[in-house]
Structures are given as structure tokens and as C-alpha cells.
Amino acid sequence: xxxxxxxxxxxxxxxxxxxxxxxxxxxxxxxxxxxxxxxxxxxxxxxxxxxxxxxxxxxxxxxxxxxxxxxxxxxxxxxxxxxxxxxxxxxxxxxxxxxxxxxxxxxxxxxxxxxxxxxxxxxxxxxxxxxxxxxxxxxxxxxxxxxxxxxxxxxxxxxxxxxxxxxxxxxxxxxxxxxxxxxxxxxxxxxxxxxxxxxxxxxxxxxxxxxxxxxxxxxxxxxxxxxxxxxxxxxxxxxxxxxxxxxxxxxxxxxxxxxxxxxxxxxxxxxxxxxxxxxxxxxxxxxxxxxxxxxxxxxxxxxxxxxxxxxxxxxxxxxxxxxxxxxxxxxxxxxxxxxxxxxxxxxxxxxxxxxxxx
Length: 358
Hints:
It is a single chain. This protein is low in regular secondary structure. It has a domain at 310-358. It contains one helix and eight strands, in the order ββαββββββ. The protein has one helix spanning 19-22, and strands at 3-6, 11-14, 310-311, 315-317, 325-327, 334-335, 338-340, 347-349. The strands form four sheets. A two-stranded antiparallel sheet has the order 1-2. Strands 3-6 form a two-stranded parallel ribbon. It has a two-stranded parallel sheet with strand order 4-7. The chain is elongated.
């Protein structure tokens, strides 16, 4: 292909080449209507783009919004396949020396945003990961917005290491007088279940949080798990400025009202159970609910402020260290089949409290 250098423009002029031939080359300033480039012509060819040939790599910057694989076609019914829209599968070692840390962020989304402080503004919504597909679901569709799998083989005892599906560690702060840090919901579900058809229908399961862990011991020794906590609630409060911190109410688990709303037809609710504990019968000691609340005139293991009855169905046997057990005024009644008290100075009924044993 003949080139002629033009000293006046500082460019090379291409002579003797048709426009059709030039159209086969990617034109850096751009072409009217856009350009399409291919990496290969054979099956499974790749297009590899690297920032530089130097060992110290830079970035591949895409300075506009992206659309991934808009021409993807249908799956073949008789073929088992997995399609990866985006893939990160290198093989590497990460063994930092003492005092050194290695970090790998598969996806780093860290914008710097200034939002309108006007409360009359419509608002700004930021989703680091947004998934809102339109899916027609058959009988065996499994959907997870975030799926954490993989294989993690331990070769040393864990010291500070932990595997976590989700880790929330934001810094919510305020330096504006009279303005507290932002409200936060670490995990929030606002699902909408709608049935718009005729005749009866059933959704078998609706669970906010489900834990189905499986623990396997394939060795000939004893595998010990010190604690298996499905939910831990622990807060630390620090007052460092000479002022005060006031906490209204702290709840480890809160179940709000489950009630009908905007019912035109008939609504039936069979059972409402705030906490349901089943199948605890394989350990040496089985405790459905345990409280380590210290004794005090306003400290309660159970408290009902709505006037509901307390009902215990089944045998109740418990021995206490001899001491005075005080039942405050308005505690209510207990209905039991059998009650065994040992020692002396068992219970003291204060004020109008009554104890009924059936």
C-alpha cells in the first residue's frame, strides 16, 4: 500500500487505494454511522485488548455507557450450556509478607457524588448493582441477584480471615450542626407479590432470610465448631466529643404487624407467630430461648404490654437456686399442666399479680 508523506499537514496520504479498501480499517477519528471491529473470523476466536506492552499496565477506559451482548440469542433446549456475559478467571498467587496486604476488587464502583440537599427535590437514587430483569418464569427457574459460590481450601488455621457473603462497612457521618448521619437499612426487602388471575393459587414459600447450611466431616477425627450463630446482633456506642448519646430502643429482633390492608374480598390468616422454634432435640442441653438479663425491678425475661395471655402447654420442671423470685404487678397469669418447685422462697406475687395452676 503506497504512502506519501505530506510535509505541510504532517500526515501520510494514501494513494492508489479504493474507498472500499479503506473502509476495512478502523478509523480512529470515527466514522459516520459508527464502526464494528472483529477479532477473528473462525469459531471461538478472541479479541484481546491490552493497555500497553509494558510490564506496568494501565487501564482500558470506556468513557461512555456500555451495553453488553445485545444480540445474544436463545438457549438451545436440548443442549446444556452456561453463558458468561463477563468473565474473570485468571490463575495467580497472593501470599503477602508480614506487614503487607494484597487486595483484589472484582468490581470497584467508587464514584464521588454531591447530592442536592433541598428536601423538596425529587431525590437521587444510587444503585451500585442494579438488577431488574423482565422474566417469564416456568416451573424450574432459579434466580439469584447475587450468587456466592466457589471453593475455598484452608491450609492454615483462620486468625483474622472470614468468608462473608455480604459485608456492609459504610461510614455514615455528618459535620452539619443539627443533622444526624443518614438512616440505614443494612438488608432490606420490599418484594411485591401480585396474583392477577381467577381461581385459587398458592405460593409455597415466602421467606425474608433463609439459612440452610450443611456441615460435613469427612475425616476420622473430631471436627469442632465452637459457635454456630445464625444471627448476631451486637452494637458498640462511643461518645468522644464530650456530649451525650441517647438510644431510644434497641431490638435484636422486631416483628411488626401483619394485618390485612385494602381488602375487597375475603382475607383469612390462620396463624401469626412472631418467633417459631422447632426441632431442638439432639443436644445435651436444649434451650429454645435463653436470657442472661440481670435481676431488677424493671428487668423482664418476657413482657407483654398488649394484655395477651401467657400459655405453656406441656410439662414444666425447673429447679432454682433458693432465692426470692418476684413477680411484679400486672405480670399476668400462667396456665401450666405441671409445675415443680424445689427449695424455699420460690415466688413472691407482688400487688395484684395472680398465679393460676391448672
